[in-house]
Design a protein that fits this description.
The structure holds two protein chains of two kinds. Chain A is mainly α. Chain A has two domains: 1-9 and 29-181, UbiA prenyltransferase (Tetracycline Repressor, domain 2, Orthogonal Bundle), CATH 1.10.357; 182-324. Chain A contains 17 helices and no strands. The longest helix of chain A has 32 residues, at 282-313. Chain B has one domain. Helices cover 78% and strands 0% of the residues of chain B. Chain B is built from one helix and no strands. Chain B has one helix at 8-47. The chains are: A mainly alpha, B mainly alpha. The A-B interface holds A 21-28, 30, 58, 60-61, 64, 67, 123, 127 and B 8-9, 11-12, 14-16, 18-19, 21-22, 30, 33-34, 36-37, 40.
Chain lengths: 324, 51
């Protein structure tokens, strides 16, 4: 984005609303800025960090930490939508977002995102602890400055490196509970980090034309379909290997192991179907890509759900004592 | 109110009302959150006091 576009967007001139027109944005428009679906997965992985921590948190403190993680993730989403308003208006997938629709001006989104970021970090620091607040601040800054402003429009590795921001919630949750970091949350961060590339590249395969029109150098746009599929296979194998680490590190039990095996096998099957088998039609290839994208969400959800369930019922501890 | 023409002013007023209500809800929520968390943090210290 050049400086002229940036200043036009900050001032709100890029929208269809006339200057100084009364704002028609409702509370639900602002809620849509938070990317609620992304927020729900972020909160879920944050819960796993809190639940796996050896220090029990007071339920109100845990809810406060989760609220701050959700608000921080939402703030990142709002700032992302502010900065990407120009390309969101071009891409079919994002055209219905509040700024391209003219419901919210970019300056409103910017103010909302900054205020929510500061509020979430300050609340986490004052009410929970400052390590968790620092990690939350790092996550928001990484997503906004490194991914959105730095990588997204410059390199096909954008979602690989930028994926770190989305991977951080388990570490924030753990830090909120313990005031420190350990191997366990870092394994979970690595798990989400390795999950991100196959997840997003499956979507990018389906939406390659959209990304090309907007000038976003996603891997299928820059390197082509074959290279993207090879990378999807590679990252899927690494992701499946990393999904075994919680068991090997001794903080996950049989339920997690069974879930990781079952979902991993299905995911690998879908990835191979997408990347190795030739699709007779374009529609079939798109369907396969969306199947990988959709199942990857379910896969991550299932892995973290099994970790949460084991932590809630003390199953991993039981399994640990059986193997000891 | 039925039958009245829909004006941009009325839309803006409705939106403003919706935003104000949400903001009030968030601010009250913050007050309650800080109050409850203060009780939670204070509670442990009071219970462990030496006298």
């Amino acid at each position: 984005m050049n400086s002229g576009t940036l200043s036009a967007i900050i001032s709100g001139a890029a929208t269809t609303a006339p200057a100084h027109a009364p704002s028609l944005a409702t509370a639900s428009d602002f809620f849509a800025l938070l990317k609620p679906r992304v927020m729900s997965l972020v909160v879920f992985t944050g819960i796993a960090g809190i639940m796996l921590a050896p220090t029990a948190m007071h339920p109100v403190a845990a809810l406060t930490a989760l609220f701050c993680i959700a608000a921080g993730a939402g703030a990142s989403g709002a700032l992302n939508m502010w900065f990407d308003a120009d390309i969101d208006a071009i891409m079919a997938r994002t055209q219905s977002r509040p700024i391209p629709r003219g419901r919210i001006t970019p300056s409103e989104a910017l103010g909302f995102g900054v205020a929510l970021s500061l509020a979430s970090i300050a609340t986490m620091g004052v009410l929970v602890n400052w390590l968790a607040a620092g990690l939350l601040a790092f996550t928001i800054a990484f997503y906004v400055f490194v991914y959105t402003m730095g990588l997204k429009r410059r390199t096909p590795q954008n979602i690989v490196i930028g994926g770190l921001a989305g991977a951080m919630p388990p570490a924030i949750g753990w830090a909120a509970a313990t005031g420190s970091l350990a191997v366990e949350p870092l394994v979970l961060v690595a798990l989400i980090f390795m999950w991100t590339p196959p997840h997003f590249w499956a979507l990018a395969l389906y939406r390659a034309d959209d990304y090309a029109r907007a000038g976003v150098p996603m891997l299928p746009v820059v390197a082509g379909e074959r290279a993207t599929k090879n990378q999807i296979i590679l990252y899927t194998l690494v992701f499946l290997a990393v999904s075994a680490l919680p068991v090997l590190a001794g903080f996950a039990g049989l339920i997690y192991a069974a879930t990781a095996l079952a979902f991993g096998a299905v995911f690998l099957g879908l990835v191979l179907q997408l990347c190795v088998m030739t699709a007779a039609t374009r529609a079939l290839a798109s369907r396969r890509a969306m199947r990988v994208f959709g199942f990857s969400i379910l896969h991550l959800f299932a892995l973290f759900a099994s970790l949460i369930a084991e932590a809630a019922f003390g199953v991993s501890a039981l399994m640990g004592s059986l193997f000891a | 109110m039925t039958g009245q023409p829909k004006t941009p002013e009325s839309d803006a007023a409705r939106s403003l009302k919706s935003r104000n209500r949400a903001l009030a809800f968030v601010l009250v929520g913050f007050v309650v959150l800080f109050f409850v968390m203060t009780l939670v943090r204070l509670g442990g210290n009071v219970a462990e006091r030496s006298f």
